[in-house]
Amino acid sequence: MTIDRGGVRDLSAVIDDLLVPAQRYPLVDPPLPAERSAVSRWERRYLGALAALDAVLILVAVLVSSQLRFSGAPLQGVNLAAALAIPLLWLGALAVQGVYEPRRLGATHEFRQVFDACLRVGAATATVAFLVHAPVSRSFLLGVLVIATLLLLAGRAGARAALHRMRRNGRCLHHVVAVGRPEDIHHLAEQARRAGNAGFAITAACTDGAPRGTVLVGDDADIPVQGTVADAVAVAVATKADTIAVVSTGGGCDRETLRQIAWEIEGTELRLLIAPAFTDVAGPRITVKPLAGLPLLHLEQPSLRGIRAFGKSVFERGVAAVALLLLSPLFLVVALAVRIDSRGPALYGQTRIGKGGAPFTCWKFRSMRAGADAELAALLAFSQGNGLLFKMREDPRVTRVGRLLRRFSIDELPQLCNVLLGSMSLVGPRPPLPTEVDRYETDVRRRLLVKPGMTGLWQVSGRSDLSWEESVRLDLYYVENWSPQLDMAIIARTIGAVVRSCGAY
Asked: What is the value of pTM for the model shown?
């Protein structure tokens, strides 16, 4: 069979079309290797340091457990082999669990992944020891498991705090090209500013809603428009960004454009983030359900009642009872100091609105002079509060002892009695005044679907320094996304907020 030169050229053209369909699917050249490595260099260093830290902590756990079990005697035989194998096994389990993947950095489930990996190591070690009848010390293995788990979780908390500190100082940031409508890009930039620990810096915008070269003026920083939606990958490469965030559809960002962007980033280290249409929804409430290649997001309803809510109530009442018992000496000292400092009772009861709009008496240690409520009208013009709330940084009604109590939130400790009686929770929205509730709009009333709390997202995020809109948003986020894990995280953050006296006045 013979093929003339024209046929060869035609066949070659067909093969080229199949292998490199540049006309139908135009691709952007990926960045140079040096550029790609520069984008994520800090991630590689951080993950390498994290793996080294984990290895050191596991070795420390082995040494401490051997010291406790064998009184400092050198390990021998099977126990020595186990001591050498456990660190490698543990690091392998952590790697398989995905804790060293860049996309896991800063994820809310990071600690759960570490804990799951520790459980897998413990189960695997126990299973192997049982199957081979290894004469290894069970108390030694148990000690390693417990100590290493605690050390790894503590080390992860310390590394996370260090990462957050660096991000607040402008380091270890993800440089993001935002794609979508200008108003949605503004919203993303505002959320990135609020969540500074996430480390997102919006460096450029691609939108069909504003001409190239204009600047989207933001509250914290201006964002230059460097192209249309179709230019997103090229702009990301040119600006050495590592992330493309699609924040809205429409206006040139349709289904085909999204797929094109996903294809174009193949072979690069660019990441693609797509914001859903709804906001302020936590990850545990979202499940991806594919339908013939179409990813659908299944949104769970908020857990406002049922066995989990009952368990929260029982747990918090138990904690309140124990805390009241342990803190009773402190209560006596504070009550005595309040009475000595100024006339009036040690406790101050104020009517607040609880779950379902039911009023209750909220108890505090008195931090103002007696009759302070009658002086409020004369001070309203000097309010520094947010929206419906009256606040003054230098309120003349606050006593000397009261200032100290407020600085460290000691004045709110009697609310443990409210928790024990069931009118409040340890964690929840701020308990509002009746005058505030009377002025609530429809959506704000959702705060009343759960019990108010002694602490909450509003309290640990700045308290009186927040705007009214932001405090409402945080309280509604809690109502919509409550979970035991969220409660534990808020309680842990409360300790730091109290020490720093954030917004406490």
From this structure: 0.65
